[in-house]
Every structure is written in C-alpha cells, then in structure tokens.
Amino acid sequence: MVGDDRRALLATPVDARAGEHPLLANNHGTYPGADGQDVLWQALDDRSAVAFVHPAELPAQPVSGIPAFAAYFLLDTTRAAYLLVRNGILRRYPNIRFILSHAGGFLPYASHRMAVTLANDTARSPLGVLDDFRSFYFDTALSSSPAALPTLLAFARPGHVLFGSGWPFAPTPAGQYFANGLDTGVDPGTLTAVNRTNAQALFPRLATTRPVPPPTPPAVSELAGVRHHVRGCVHRSGASASRSLPPGPAPVLTGKWRRDSGRGGRMLLGAVTRAGRCVRR
C-alpha cells in the first residue's frame, strides 16, 4: 500500500503535489499510522500535502441490519485518527494537513475519553493529546446536525472546519438535509468560513478564484410585466391565426379540407413565429 501511494504521489505533476491526497481509513485492516509507513509520510511531508482520510469497510464481519455508512464509517475514521496521534505521525510530520471526513467520526464527541486513554498508554499529557486531536481538519459531510455541528465547532481549531456534502455517494435528500443544517445552524461569519475561506487558507490556489454569485431573481413587478407582454403577444398572434382558418366545424382531412387544413396549419405556425418575435422585442 505504502509503495503504491508513494509512486502515485511522485507521478503527480509538481504543481498539484501540494494538493489533496485521498487516503482510506483502512486498507484491508491496515490503518494510517501503523508501523512501516514512514516513507509515505515523509513524501507527503516534503510536499506540505493535504491528506484526506475517508472511511472504508471495517475489517470485521458486519452486523446484520446496520449499514456501514450509519455507524461503521464513523468508527473507521476514529480509529485512523487515534493511531495517527498515538504513534506521533502528526508531530513527526508537521507539514502534512489531515482532513477527516464526516466531522471526524466519533472523535470530537469522544476526544477527552480517548485523550485520557492515550495519556495513560504513552505517558503524555492529556492536554497535549487533545491538542493533537484538534490539529486535524474536519469536513461537514452528513454531519451538520443540531447535535453534531455544535460539538464539532466547539472542538476544532478555528479555521479547521470545511464544507462537505457526501455527494455523489450520499442520497441527495440526505445531503440537502445536512447542508440546510449548516445554513441555518451557524452565524453568517462562521458559514462563510466553513463554506469558503477556511478552504482558501488550506488551498491558497482556491483564493484566486472568485466565487460565482447566485443569479438575482427579477423583481415581482418585472416578472408581472414580462408575463403581461407574453400573454399579449400570444393573444394577438393566436387571434390572427384563428381568422385564417377555414370556417365551420373541424375539417376532415380529405380533398379540399386537407388543403385548407394544411394552409391553416401553416398560418398557425406563422402565428407562433410572430409571437416569438414579439416576445423577443
């Protein structure tokens, strides 16, 4: 795994090597932060890379009735973050910025519990462990709920929360639900930071791209005027066409009536064309 990742990194164009590099939270049971990965971390550190950690299937038998994305993905990301901190990867390779998907899984919620465990295991200060946990970046994909979002914002360092949607893998209604939770759950300054400026700081090239403003809807009075103009054009052109049709009941398409109906159809087509020209004016 490490050799393949390093070769892929070295094959990346130089101007893109400082960009985002996706990593699975586990690869057949091997997690980031395990022994034997220093070559990969050194290559990423040399390039000040951003590593995006996304969960995968847990290396264990699934439990019937529990979809992976509902709980296992969160545990998978949490395991990866735990090992990266426990084995000192963040401190030994400080130029790597790690983004954890889905608000870091269970990390913000259980960070103090894990810090106490790691402090006992490594003889480090619990506050130092917490500081390492807070140094991760977090995206908001499927996580901007009234329960999860306040915890994430209270835990993460300023500037370390980035917008995420889960698209295209998450169902669109789910993505919309959580995006709406972000739009309505934070103040305007925080919303701007999560949606754009935090990412600009992490990826400076994005700061040179101006955001595309949403289209401004026309005023109600303007819409009413357009509708009135269109109705007038259609009415005048339709009346002209109706005067050109043969009188009497609907024609049967035989003999003379076929010729008259063809003429009427051409007149109706002409009326539609005139209506279009009128609308464009």
From TrEMBL:
Keywords: Lyase. One of its GO terms (biological process) is secondary metabolic process. One of its GO terms (molecular function) is carboxy-lyase activity. GO terms for cellular component: cytoplasm. It comes from the Bacteria. Residues 236-261 are annotated as: Disordered. Residues 30-204 form the Amidohydrolase-related domain. The keyword Lyase applies. This is Amidohydrolase-related domain-containing protein. It comes from Kitasatospora phosalacinea. The lineage of its organism: Bacteria, Bacillati, Actinomycetota, Actinomycetes, Kitasatosporales.
